[in-house]
Amino acid sequence: MTHHVNFKGEKAVPVEERQTILQASLAAGIPHYHACGGKGQCTTCRVLVLEGQEKLTPPTVLEQAIKKVKKFPDNVRLACQSRVNGEGVAVQRLIRDEIDRFIFVDDTEDSFTTVMGESRKLALFFIDIRDFTPFVERSLPFDVIHIMRRIFALFKNAITQYDGEIIDTAGDGLYAVFGLNSRIKQAANSAVLAGLKILSDLRIFNNTYMRPYFNHTFEVGIGVHVGKVVVGNVGIGLSHNLTVMGFPVNIAARLQAATKELNNSFVISAVAYRLLKNPPYSVGCNYLNLKGVSTPYEVRLIGKPYEIKDTPVLPETRQV
Ligand code: FES
């Protein structure tokens, strides 16, 4: 049976029995935001029910969970989780300003069904150059840029060789993910292989280039974790501008940060380590207290202890 829902200030749309309010509004051409693709995992499709609340199906389990976390009142419903049982329902979309419209949908018909993000299981990889600041302080700016380009090329080469994707760079570090085109086991293995390749390539780079030409050697810290994250696109007109968010990302970043205190260049969560086909030797298992995690977090150390860093600075030479 077909009912109708009146979208205040927009139009009345027909809703079939099997359709959600979101499906009906999109079918009727309303640019109704739906960042998670109608999976009950965001709040962008929410509507305020003005009339006929009793004609809607009860909130699904997913909707109940979101309403509880967000403390939404009873008359705020997720359009993608609500179906209609009768006439007399009037709603108002709650997210509908022009900037949102520009970001979430363009005016092509296809865009109404575009999913702005999806939930994926990925391997998350953070790497940071240790003690970069002292090098910057005693080097010429163009030398610093030159060296950074060399080191980041080395990172990129290993990451892309193992089918990883660089998501972001910040200062002397970067963040990459593995598993956009593979399953999680493969992703974890690839992340570890890329990390080990970087450690090995960096050793060669230090011995053959950095030490002889710049009297300096670099070390890095790597953190790897796996988990369910949301992959989306925050760019406007830049389809490659991927962003990956979720609590596992924070954990991976904290593992990378912990490399210093653990005195090991490669820290991987035990969860990720268990996925490895040929796990590298790990120096026992450690437990870390991570912010936001109630119990100590089990990790494996698969890198090397840091070397003593005090590379003697050569006396300045006069150029002729
Ligand atoms: S579209 Fe995400 S919850 Fe409805």
TrEMBL record:
<dbReference type="Pfam" id="PF00111">
    <property type="entry name" value="Fer2"/>
</dbReference>
<dbReference type="InterPro" id="IPR029787">
    <property type="entry name" value="Nucleotide_cyclase"/>
</dbReference>
<dbReference type="Pfam" id="PF00211">
    <property type="entry name" value="Guanylate_cyc"/>
</dbReference>
<feature type="domain" description="Guanylate cyclase">
    <location>
        <begin position="123"/>
        <end position="256"/>
    </location>
</feature>
<keyword id="KW-0472">Membrane</keyword>
<keyword id="KW-1003">Cell membrane</keyword>
<dbReference type="InterPro" id="IPR036010">
    <property type="entry name" value="2Fe-2S_ferredoxin-like_sf"/>
</dbReference>
<protein>
    <recommendedName>
        <fullName>Adenylate/guanylate cyclase domain-containing protein</fullName>
    </recommendedName>
</protein>
<dbReference type="InterPro" id="IPR050697">
    <property type="entry name" value="Adenylyl/Guanylyl_Cyclase_3/4"/>
</dbReference>
<feature type="domain" description="2Fe-2S ferredoxin-type">
    <location>
        <begin position="3"/>
        <end position="97"/>
    </location>
</feature>
<dbReference type="InterPro" id="IPR001054">
    <property type="entry name" value="A/G_cyclase"/>
</dbReference>
<dbReference type="InterPro" id="IPR001041">
    <property type="entry name" value="2Fe-2S_ferredoxin-type"/>
</dbReference>
<dbReference type="InterPro" id="IPR012675">
    <property type="entry name" value="Beta-grasp_dom_sf"/>
</dbReference>
